[in-house]
Design a protein that fits this description.
Layout: H1 9-23, H2 56-62, H3 66-73, E1 76-82, E2 85-89, H4 92-98, H5 106-116, E3 118-122, E4 128-135
Antiparallel strand pairs: 1-2, 1-4, 3-4
Length: 138
């Protein structure tokens, strides 16, 4: 079994000298200072970034547009045909859950389906599910 070697003050001082020599190029600061850049970073400038609240006034105002209001209130169901059997669901997410499809892909697929009204989804196993958008009964 090898014995553990203790670092003495003399060998530690030798290591410190090597590190100090390597850092000599950077000066007293290891990273650039503000003055090293060709422009001055703005301080206290509002870049229009809102906090977690977002833009509630803008969203509230958008509801006054009749087209936006109608699109948001419209509910659609889906019919899914798989292996010759057609089933109806209240939402794309519900259909994805039932058929055990990757749930993280349902939002993007829903957008494509709303644009085309009829779309095929192919699973990782190569199975094809035919989705058709239908008007949901309230």
């Amino acid at each position: 079994m090898a014995t553990r070697q203790t670092i003495t003050k003399k060998s530690a001082a030798k290591n410190i000298a090597v590190v100090e020599a390597a850092l000599a190029d950077f000066g007293p600061y290891p990273f650039p200072k503000r003055s090293d850049f060709f422009f001055d970073f703005p301080r206290g400038v509002d870049f229009g970034v809102k906090g977690a609240a977002g833009n509630p006034a803008g969203v509230a105002a958008s509801w006054s547009d009749e087209k936006v209001r109608a699109a948001r209130l419209q509910k659609n169901g889906v019919k899914v045909t798989f292996n010759g059997e057609t089933r109806e669901f209240r939402s794309v997410k519900e259909a994805f859950r039932e058929f055990r499809l990757p749930i993280e892909k349902h939002i993007k697929f829903r957008g494509v389906l709303k644009a085309s009204k009829k779309e095929a989804f192919t699973s990782a196993k190569g199975e094809v599910y035919m989705f058709t958008l239908v008007e949901a009964a309230e």
